[in-house]
Amino acid sequence: MNEIKINTEIIKLDAFLKWSGAACLGSEAKIYILDELVKVNGEICTQRGKKLKSGDIVEFNKEVYKIL
């Protein structure tokens, strides 16, 4: 599990994918989300503006990220 520290109280899902390095571009992150390739806390999430906070778990491309 990759633990990723964010500098704010919340972060949007598409921004998190860029911040964590899972996506290089925001447009790339958007495609992954809309193609239902990303899970948040065990459920597929298609909301690119989904607000994430400390403790949330994001799964993408066989990697698991925990937000700190």
Compact description:
Keywords: RNA-binding. By secondary structure, this protein is of the alpha+beta class. It is built from two helices and seven strands, in the order E-E-H-H-E-E-E-E-E.
Word description of this protein:
Helix content is 25%, strand content 34%. It contains 2 helices and 7 strands; from the N terminus they run E-E-H-H-E-E-E-E-E. The longest helix is centred in the middle third of the chain and has 9 residues, at 26-34. The chain is globular and about 25 Å long. The mean pLDDT is 96.
Ends apart, CA distance between termini = 12 Å
CATH-defined superfamily: RNA-binding S4 domain
CATH architecture: Roll
> What shape does the CA trace take?
globular
Question: Which key terms come to mind for this protein?
Answer:
about 70 residues, alpha+beta, Structural Genomics Hypothetical 15.5 Kd Protein In mrcA-pckA Intergenic Region, Chain A, five-stranded mixed beta sheet, two-stranded antiparallel ribbon, 2 helices, 7 strands, about 25% helix, about 35% strand, globular
